[in-house]
C-alpha cells in the first residue's frame, strides 16, 4: 500500500504514524488538485497537520470504488458469518489500538483523554462488535398468501452509502454508521468532519488489517461545502446518513433528492430535563450536570434546558451551581483531573460566548460562568467556564436555540401540565429526562414527551443496544440497536406461484 503519512507525537508522549491521504479502494491517494485541510489542536491553537481533502473528482473515484465493491463477488457473495467475523476482527483491532486512537481524539477534538479512552473508544469497539453479531441474522420472512401461492422477503443492502460524520465523537459516530452498514453488506464512502479528520484515517488502516476487500470502505476528508455536498448530491450514491446540525441536514435533504436517496438524519436538540418536587435532589443534580456539561457540552442530545418545579427551584439552583463548581474542572485534556477541555474550534468558542451576550440582553440571570479562561495554556486554547442561566422563560432565544457548548438554561414550572408544555415547546425532539420518584408520573411523562429518547432518573445514558434518533427537527430514522439495521437494508419481496397449471 502506498503510504501518505506523517509521524506525530502527542503531549502524552505517544507517537504514531498518521495517514494524510484519501483512502480509496484500500489505497492512500492524494487529492486530484492538491486540495488539503489543516487541523488545529484546540488546546494550543497550533496546527497538528494537514491532510488531503476530496474534490468532486475524488468523490467520483471513491463512489466508483464503492460501486465496484458492491458488485464484486469478494464482498457481494461473502456470507453474513464472514462479514461478521471481519467486523469482529475490526472491533478487536480498535481495542488493541485504543490508546493511540484516544490520544488522537484528544489532540484533535480537545476532549479529556480519560473520556476518549473509557468512553468513546469503548463505545466505538463495542458498537462494531454488536453489529458483527447481527451480520448473519439479517433475514426476511415467509408470507403465506393463498393455497396456490406464497411470498418470501429478503433483506438486501441499500447499496453505496455516503456517511457524513460530525466532530464531537469522531470515531464513535463513524462506528454507529459503519457497523450496521457493513453488517448488512453495503459499501461506504465516509466523510469525517473537517475539524477532526485524523482518527478515521488511522481506523482505515485497521479496516484493511481486518480483511475488508478494496472499495468496501472509503474514507475521504474535506469541507462540508465541497466534499460533503459532492457526496450528498452524487447520482450514484444510494443513501446518505448524516449527523450534524439541523441547518446542514436541511441542505443535505435537498441535495439527496436529486436521485431520491434513502436518508438517515441525526441532527440538533434542545433537550429538556424535568425535575419534580419529589425527585431525589442529589441524583437529579448529578445527572443534570453530566447531561449538559460532559464532552464540553458538545452533545446533540445534551439536556440543555432544565425545568424545575417551584418548591425546590432555589434549592436545585444552589446545589447545581455547587456541582458545576466542584466537578466541572476546566483544563488541559491530557490532565487526569480535567472534566472539561477546550471547545473544539474558535468558531464554537465564539458561538458559546455570543450566547452569553444574548442571554444577558434577554435579561436572563447569569448565575455562573461564561468567562474565557486564559490561564490554562498561556492565553492559548478555546477554554471557557461553564455557563448557567436561571429564570429563563420560553420566549427567550437561549431557551429555544441550540448552543452546543457547556451552556445550560434553568426555568421554573408549577404543575405537571406546565412541565410537559414547556418541555414540548421546541422545534427539536431528540432527548428528554424526567426526575421523580412517582412511578406512574414517570411513565405518563415518557408517553407525552415529544422526543426520540426519554431518560427516567438519568440523562444521556447511551447504549449501542438501544435505538437512538429524533422526532420533529431532530432527525429522521434511527441508529443503533436492531432498529439501526432497518436504515441499511432494503426489503425485496419475491412472489412464488406453486400452482401446477395456469
Ligand atoms: P457543525 O455546524 O456543528 O460544524 P455541521 O452540520 O456543519 O455541524 O457538520 C457536520 C458534518 O456535515 C461535517 O462532516 C461537515 O463537513 C458536513 N457538512 C457541512 N456542510 C455540509 C454540506 N453543505 N453538505 C454536506 N455535508 C456538509
Mean pLDDT: 97
Sequence stretches where pLDDT stays below 50 over 5 or more residues: none
Going by helix content, strand content and strand pairing, the class is alpha/beta
Strand content: 15-25%
Topology-level CATH name of the largest domain: Aldehyde Dehydrogenase, Chain A, domain 1
- CATH top level of the largest domain is Alpha Beta
Name of the CATH superfamily of the largest domain: Aldehyde Dehydrogenase, Chain A, domain 1
- Domains counted in the coordinates: how many? 2
The profile of the biggest β sheet is:
7 strands, mixed
| N- and C-termini, Cα separation | 59 Å
Q: Which cofactors or ions or other ligands sit in this model?
A: adenosine-5'-diphosphate
Number of helices in the DSSP assignment: 16
Second-tier CATH architecture of the largest domain: 3-Layer(aba) Sandwich
Primary descriptors:
502 residues, Ald_DH/histidinol_DH, single chain, Aldehyde Dehydrogenase, Chain A, domain 2, 37% helix, alpha/beta, binds adenosine-5'-diphosphate, 2 domains, Aldehyde_DH_dom, Aldehyde Dehydrogenase, Chain A, domain 1
What does this structure look like?
It is a single chain. By secondary structure, this protein is α/β, with parallel strands linked by helices. The chain folds into two domains: 54-267 and 477-490, Aldehyde Dehydrogenase, Chain A, domain 1; 272-463, Aldehyde Dehydrogenase, Chain A, domain 2, CATH 3.40.309.10. It has helices at residues 56-71, 73-76, 80-96, 98-109, 113-134, 170-183, 199-209, 224-232, 246-256, 281-293, 313-327, 346-361, 397-400, 416-424, 439-448, 483-486, and strands at residues 5-9, 15-19, 22-24, 27-29, 36-41, 46-52, 142-144, 149-157, 160-164, 187-191, 217-219, 239-243, 262-266, 272-275, 305-309, 365-368, 387-390, 407-413, 433-435, 455-456, 475-476, 489-497. Strands 16-17-18-15-14-19-20 form a seven-stranded mixed β-sheet, sandwiched between helices. Strands 11-10-9-12-13-21 form a six-stranded mixed β-sheet, with helices on both faces. A hairpin with a 2-residue loop joins strand 3 and strand 4 (27-29). Helix 4 (98-109) packs across helix 5. 52% of the residues are buried. The model has no long low-confidence stretch (mean pLDDT 97). It binds adenosine-5'-diphosphate. Residues 164-166, 191, 193-194, 223-225, 228-229, 232, 244-245, 248, 251-252 line the site of adenosine-5'-diphosphate. InterPro entries: Ald_DH/histidinol_DH, Ald_DH_C, Ald_DH_CS_GLU, Ald_DH_N, Aldehyde_DH_dom.
